[in-house]
Amino acid sequence: MFPLYNEFLLPAVSSGPRKKFSLTYAAKNLSQFVAGEKQFSNEKVLFGIPWRLVVFENHDEIVGLSLSCGQCVQDSRKWSLSIEVELKLMSSSEKGFSKVRRLLVKTLTKIELQLLDTEDLIENFVSAESVRIQVDVKILEQKELKYETKIFELTYPIQNLARFENRESQSSDVRECFKVPWSIFVEKNHDFLSCHLMYEKELCTPNDWHIQGVCTFYLKSDEGKSFCNFYEIDLKGPGTSGDDHFIKWEDLIRNYSIDDSVTVIARVQITSLKRSFMKEGPISKSFVISQQFGGISSVLEGETLIGSEEKRFNIPWTIKMQRRSGFVVIFLYCRRKSYPHQIWTVYAKCWFKLVSANGKSLMRLQNAVFQCEDTCELDKFTRWEDMMTDYAIDDYVTIEAHVEIYDIVEKDIDLLAPSLSNALDEQTFYAGSFFSAFTISNISRFEDDEKQWGNTEKRYNIPWRLRAKKSFDFLEINLFCDEENIMTTNKLVEAECTFCLVSSNGNSLKQKLKLYFGRPGGQGVCRLVEWSELEEDYAVNDRVVIEAHVKIKKVRELSHEPLPIERSCVLSHTVRNIANMEESNFIFNITEEWYYVLWGISLKCNSGFVELQLNWENELFENESWTIQTRFQLSLIGANEKRITQYFEHTFDKPGSSGDSKFLRWEDMVNNYAIEDSVRVEACVRFIHVIATPPQKSFAMFYTLGNLSNVLEEEHHFSLTEKHFEIP
């Protein structure tokens, strides 16, 4: 309940004489309190620190009391305090209540003391709907903290207070202070004024500052009345900090309104300003689309202007603008195609920006969740007449949408638990059975993680393959439902399989399992028998036979379209002269760049084995970071398209490799897969999530080329020269 301080028993000794004072306040109209409402005592400056009592009700209907200690307006000092606080409630019926706490407080914080719930408070302590509060404070220790601070002020006159509707908002022009764009954002939040400091998102800037400090909002009247409250700032990237219930709207109108307007002052003290290269939350994709709308003076009530469709990350997006009840309403449509038996959700932050040719702009932030063909709507962006007066030039305005997609969740129903399989549209349903076997040879020379593969056999139009592996001194057997490409898997197979280990000496071993194949890869028995027991009891002439007796229960054909092109890639390369390849010699093939990363395949002769890897090739810049979650398959392809395929899941956070150092023995590849001393290697990669933080020094340039039909052969067009990092 007390997140802003540490509470503990303090020693009885202190440095220097103790300083004491009391604050009193009569809280009124408590029975009419609503969630978020606050009452403030007058501010007192004692021992160089301003103190104030704040009475409020939170959303759990608990009345709370804050002892607010901050800084004087023109004072940038920061304190560390050890204090003892005693809280007393008094009523005319002589009922009382007290609570004592000892606290360690760093200034610019609020000490929250929980009281009784509202009903008990009214019943036991309120006389004429008021209660007298007294807080006795003993300062046990006071130290000044040394720190560097950056201070600036923003002012904004809120206009036309009388016509404000609920959820209507205004904001100041953007001002850059300490390399960060700032503005004041105000809104009528039911019966309150909502007041926030906004760290704006700017086009073509890194937007990766981590900012800590304090913002104090002030209101002042002609009669000398003042009202203020301060709030801690902790912003990691663009966002807002402030109060949804800064002051009651009726109090604002009655005490501070002058000619239907009031001026808000934001005094900002930044105590920490640094780059935050790893953002919280998996930001994977960001983009900006811009749409110019013309003829806006002739737009009628209820009419909608529709922008052109633009594709970003293979998803079509459209901006729309509507005139509704005298306000501008902005829509962003996500028209991503939905595939049968697939559920997807896009989570994003959308910064909508109204841009004028006169240099003015207005920005709003909206969190959005898109499912199928979905839309993000921002109601009451600004009044239509204000847009015409302040932003429209030659009857045109521009709307920008700055979108950060921080998560895409895809659920393929064919990957769900078998209990959900009855939800699928079944196109085929049948039962069948088959038998597959192969002989494991050279058992005595097997190394840990070495594998041998049986031949691929098609049964019921499905390719199957057995694999034997030495894993931690045990025999592991897997049956693969061996589709050729992880991007085209389109079957859900339910089967029963009996794995058998058969020896020519008469010994045998069996194990029965239920298998569900909804994604590429193998399933089977991890530890069928210890390897030493395999050699002693089953191997004859260094060989043993493994069998799979399979009963197919159900096969469901799924309508599965290929993954969008930007989410997958295929790399392929023919490796030549393999007979002359020396030990530890690499053959690299860099074929494609995806997400500004170079991907390639490497093949290496490693201690008599084929080592096959997917490689992230290029180096990172300073302060650049990536997290790339992948699912991929590596294949070695020989004569008559005979192949060995293995499946992997790996998250890359730096340049490196992932694959198998013992894909198969080198001599087996040469004897069974090589054609004219060559073999083909292939990687099919699916990008699940990509989280990218660009290097500190980066920029983008934009240039619109018009009048395309009149461009002549070899004619050149140039953008304006821009200076970035002192370079034109």
Q: Mind summarizing the main beta sheet?
A: 5 strands, antiparallel
Oligomer: single chain
> Gap between N and C termini, in Å?
55 Å
What fraction of the residues are assigned to beta strands by DSSP? over 45%
Would you give the CATH topology of the largest domain?
Apoptosis, Tumor Necrosis Factor Receptor Associated Protein 2, Chain A
> What is the highest CATH level, the class of the largest domain?
Mainly Beta
Q: Report the total helices.
A: 5
| Fraction of residues in helix | under 10%
Tell me the domain tally: 5
CATH architecture of the largest domain: Sandwich
Structural class: mainly beta
Q: What does the radius of gyration come to? A: 35 Å
Unreliable stretches: 1-16, 277-283, 413-430
Describe the structure in your own words.
With 728 residues, the chain is mostly beta strands. It folds into 5 domains: 19-145, Sandwich (Apoptosis, Tumor Necrosis Factor Receptor Associated Protein 2, Chain A); 150-275, Apoptosis, Tumor Necrosis Factor Receptor Associated Protein 2, Chain A (Sandwich), CATH 2.60.210.10; 285-411, Apoptosis, Tumor Necrosis Factor Receptor Associated Protein 2, Chain A (Sandwich); 432-557, Apoptosis, Tumor Necrosis Factor Receptor Associated Protein 2, Chain A; 568-692, Apoptosis, Tumor Necrosis Factor Receptor Associated Protein 2, Chain A (Sandwich), CATH 2.60.210.10. It is 5% helix and 57% strand. The chain has 5 helices and 45 strands. The strands form 10 sheets. The protein has a 5-stranded antiparallel β-sheet, with no helix packed on it. A hairpin with a 4-residue loop joins strand 5 and strand 6 (62-69). The longest helix has 8 residues, at 118-125. It starts with 5 loop residues before the first strand and ends in a 35-residue tail after the last strand. Mean pLDDT is 76; it is low at 1-16, 277-283 and 413-430.
